[in-house]
Every structure is written in structure tokens, then in C-alpha cells.
Amino acid sequence: MGGDYRRVSPALPLSRAILSAQEQGIVPVIADIKPVSPRDGDLLSSRAPAELARTLADAGACALSVVTEPRDFGGSCAMLTEVADAVSLPVLRKDFFSAPEQVAESHAAHAGAVLLIMATIPDPLAAQLYQETRQLGMEAVVEIHTRAELDRALALDPTIIGINNRNILKLETDPGDVRVTEELAPLVPDSILTISESSLNSPEEVRRARQAGASAVLIGTAILQAPDITARLKTFIEAEDSPIV
Which residues does 60 contact at the CB level (< 8 Å), separation at least 6? Predict the structure, then answer.
């Protein structure tokens, strides 16, 4: 491993980590730690979350995300804290937020950002959650899957938009397609960072997302299922340097 990653100072904000990777000329990849996928089953394969986080950090991920929803995805806030304390990267908490207390809980668990899913949050609550996030000095990734959700998200004046290529209302069991990013990313104002999430399985799909305007990509299953997760992650980070086949 590349040394002790236990946090001694706050990690960079997620937005800054994305911009820093861009400045280095690499694809900003947020590696997603998801214990269980309703579609693909167990993804941790008995790996310790902290060790996995350090491996992903060493391999060049610009940030990590942790799914904390327990029932369908097998996550927890304890796992979030374990990951956040193991690395010096910003960590995004992914869950179904329904109350401001969850934002404070995320902050206490050392997350630097939270995911607000417009498909599951009515507008008044979305505004409340977004305000709470900013007041705590955190960032919010406002997630969308449709044009209507994008319009609602833009009303929050967000700094980061996440485009889920799958339908979270189906617990991401639908096949998903990078074409969702290709359709929606060009509609996001240039002043807002855009993350293409889910269903990115090859360097070519990463290139397509980036060409459509995605600032970064969030990838979990395609990395976690690989026999060599370090090598697999690097294929995505270096996607724009690799030949098109």
C-alpha cells in the first residue's frame, strides 16, 4: 500500500478532487463501494471495506462513494466511517435521504458529500436537504435520470449534478445505458460539474460519457467484479488515452 491513509486533515471537496484529476489529464473516476447489488449480488466478496478503499485510492480514484442503504444494498454508516477514515480522498454517501438528520449523520460519519436523488425526494424536502448540506460545509450531488428531474434539480442551483444511467426506482435492476448521459449531460450548464453514474462497463462507455460532457464518472460493479480491481480501475482512469477498438 502507498502509506497510511488515515485522515489527519480534511479531504479535498469532491468538486475540487474532480477538477484536480482533470488538471492531471486523467479521467476523474469516483469508485463506488457497494456491498450488495440487487442486480449482481455480493460485491465485497469478504474484502474489508477499509482495505478496499485504500486499494482504490492507490489505484488512482479521485474520490470514493459508499452505499449505506442496508436493506437492498447491504450498507451502513459504520462502513461509511470506516472508509472515510481509511483514505485521504473525499467520500460521497449514497442513500435514500428523507430527513435533514441524515445529512448531519453523514457529516458525523466523515462524508464530504451526499447524494440527493430527485426521483425519491419532493422539491420542498430537496431544498431543505440541500440547504442543510451546505450549512454543514458539505457538497451535494443532485441525482437525476430524466429531463424533468434535471429541471427540478436546476432549481436548487446545484454545483454538482449526477446522471444515473439506470432507474433507481427499479433499484438499478434495469440494464441502463450511457445514452442517458449522452441525452442529458449537454443540457447541464457548463458551470455545474456532471457525474455519469452506473452502467459504465468499458473504457469506450467512459469516453462516450466524457464526450457528452460528463466531468467525472462513478463506477462500482465493473470494478468490484474484476479479478484485478487495480488494473480494471486504471483502464477507466486512462480511458481517454487508450485506443478505440
Answer: 26, 29, 233, 234, 237
Name the DSSP class of 175: -
Q: Residue 58 — φ and ψ, nearest 5°?
A: -60, -35
Pair 40, 5: CB distance under 8 Å: no
By C-alpha distance, which of 60, 55, 57, 49 is closest to 24? 60
**Beta-strand runs (E) in the chain:** 29-33, 36-37, 41-42, 63-67, 91-94, 113-117, 139-144, 160-164, 193-197, 216-219
The answer to whether position 4 is within a domain reads no
Side chain identity at residue 230, one-letter code = T
Is 9 domain-assigned?
A: no
Q: How many domains does the chain have?
A: 1
In a domain, 243, yes or no: no
pLDDT tens, 4-55? 434 434 589 999 999 999 999 999 999 999 998 877 777 788 899 999 999 9
Name every residue whose Cβ is closer than 8 Å to that of residue 168 and which is 6 or more positions away in sequence. 117, 119, 120, 143, 145
Tell me how far CA of residue 147 lies from CA of 26, 119, 181, 205, in angstroms.
Answer: 29, 11, 11, 21
Give which of 92, 100, 104 is closest to 162, Cα–Cα. 92
pTM of the model: 0.92
The torsion angles phi and psi of 142, rounded to 5 degrees, stand at: -90, 110
223/148 Cα distance (integer angstroms):
31
- In the three-class reduction of DSSP (H, G, I as helix; E, B as strand; rest coil), residue 91 is classed as strand
Which pLDDT tens digit goes with each residue over 73-114? Answer: 889 999 999 999 999 999 999 999 999 999 999 999 999 999
